[in-house]
Fold this sequence. Notes:
Distance between the termini: 22 Å
Strand content: 5-15%
Order of helices and strands: HHEEHEEHHH
Structural class: mainly alpha
Largest sheet: 2 strands, antiparallel
Strand order of the largest sheet: 1-2
Helix content: 25-40%
Amino acid sequence: MFKVDKTPEPEFFADFKRRHGDSIKNWDDMNNYPDIKKELRLHMLLEEQDCRCPYCETSVDDESDGSIEHIKPKDLFKNLFLEYNNLITSCKSSYSCDNFKGKKWDDKFINPTKENPEEYFSYDLITGEIIPKEKSGIKYEKANKTIEILNLNHDKLKRIRVVFLKALLTAPQEDLIYYNKYPSLLKYYKEIKF
């Protein structure tokens, strides 16, 4: 999981809300504006997220791979459904991230637009598990709750991380600059290894 540095709300979205805000009562109404949703999804993906899901860090190549995720669920926080700082582009994985999270919420959930997840997580380099950096306290609780809500230790995600780590182990140090997948795992690996 990585930090998303939100840019100011893009003008096309602010303009859209000025023109149509009164007619949009909930997120379902946005289905009438697929072009805006697509433009918003791609803007966040390209300008803020380096074409990655901030939760699991897998690549999100285009609009078919990603969806707009409400960090605080739109069904529980109805006043935030058009709040730009509550939106990211998430992968469409059926076993983790936004699809797994759904309407689940807890105040201990780590919001990647407000907090730096790297302060909360580390990795087990053998199993590929994402684990709390702290052994107790609020950071430990927040890390565990976020892992649970997003299902970040699904078997498939752990296997993907292990394969990536095996590739890193055989790569010469000077070639690590070419490895741009899973940025927080790569950073953690570099800190441990070097």
